[in-house]
Write a structure and sequence with these properties.
heterodimer, A: Aspartate Aminotransferase, domain 1, 3 domains, three-stranded antiparallel beta sheet, B: OB fold (Dihydrolipoamide Acetyltransferase, E2P)
Amino acid sequence: MRYYDKLVFELSKPGRSGFSLSQEWADAPLDLDPALLRVEAPVLPEVSEVDVVRHYTNLSQMNFGVDTGFYPLGSCTMKYNPKINEEIAALPAFLGLHPLQDPETVKGARTVLDWTDRLLAEITGMKHFTFKPCAGAHGELTGLMILREYHLSRGDEGRTKVIVPDSAHGTNPASAAVCGLEIVEVKSNAAGLVDVEELKPLLGPDIAGIMMTNPNTLGLFEKDIKEIAALVHGCGGLLYYDGANMNPLLGAVRPGDMGFDIMHLNLHKTFSTPHGGGGPGSGPVGVAEHLVPFLGVSTSGFHGNFGVILRALAYILMLGKQNVHLAGRLATLNANYIKECLRDAYKLPIDSVCKHEFVFDGLIDDGACEGKAGATTLDVAKRLLDFGYHAPTIYFPLLFHQALMIEPTETESKETLDDFIAVMHKIAEEAAADPNILHAAPHNAPISRPDETTAARNPILKWENEN
Amino acid sequence: MSKVQEGLLYSESHEWVRVEGPNAFVGISDFAQEEMGDITYVDLPDLDNVLKGEEFGALESVKASSDLYSPVTGTVSERNLDLEDAPELLNEDPYGNWIIRVHLANPAELDDLMDAEAYAQFIAK
């Protein structure tokens, strides 16, 4: 990889330009209030067309994406984004849409929303979806506002607390807090699942609901979900489903059938639209029939990122009803395959069949492998970069000290998985032989280890012209 | 192995307390700073009342963000403003750098805290 770290401003030369206005345009009088006009010209880079093309092409080659290589980033579902999605989204009639267009002229777009609503409802067991939320956490906030509205509409004003498991995504308690709800944590048991006995004493007339991710962030299916649903409903609360981990359940299990009342989906994860710097998100919220009247609760005036919804619809239609379950099953098979192949070298804190992802607790250090003790999960992740892989998620969930979270998705072939497994074994051998190889990694990346502490303590967020 | 300083009282959420007359200085233990990693930001409270067990501020590190819980009830009478520009002081010398000084409202609560020996056993678990 060729190192390139220029800012477009650094290429700027006074007077250089990639275009020229016609004299007629340049001389055209501006029909604007002089108070609105700038006194000084804005500081914009002055560059030629070829400067711009080379600059962004070079930057793009510094990037790692799912189009470049294997991207086992746990909890993020970095599945391949089929190019047919892009073709559909690039159809001129969709591309030219404007959110403030006369509704009479956007019946095609309406059809897309209604159609996606119907398909997502069928996949999840919900009644209807709203497409307004633009990302997962936006969906969580919308969903919790629906939950609160529901209780308030019944005059049930004392329900101010939301239960969140200790394994939850950090956005869950954050969304609840933004919504003005108090967070009560419920602990996981030794099997990594919500402890039903710990949950029982928390339930009461002050509980608005529970937020759950199933499978949870350890990649484990919350098998007691039906009992949990009965208990929470029994105390008058609602169940919120964080759809971040929906991928393995596609076509197999429906949140609605598990007893959930409200949920969001991350279309950019489960339904193959670009994310992680590659594109905007989409977090539609679905509700069970009894909550449909509250679906109008709004945190946005528009129907979300329409182009993303369109890509998700293309993906669902491309798979078809007969095949949609294969995505979930193959994602589950791939994760279990890697887990079983690597458990001789990496510590598996919870031994159980996983769903789409699983968590190791660092390298095995059983005394038999002297030297491994010094190599941390961070070292393993940094060393993986040398072999051309995106690093897995590290130090999340917080339940384990050396968490290393791997999610291969259904995208990958057995050959890709085997190559990755071989590299992970090689790294474990290096750790045993000479942990310094890992400490100093990455060796092949354009920069080795950035000083994250200084970056966090004294961030430089803005380019300043030194001249 | 984390250092536990003799002569201080400790809470289960890893704050230490040094009592000086009617006041108590509150900081975080060596164990806490090791768990956090390099601390990048200290969110100090306003000069106001705090309750035992209540959040009074937060720490951010490269790894995580963590709330600070007051081990005592009282009025925050002083804040260590040096930490605003130099949060790394908590990593370098956790027992030499207090975070807040509290004028104690209920000194009897101090009996609920652990001494150095009990805290050493608590973090060894």
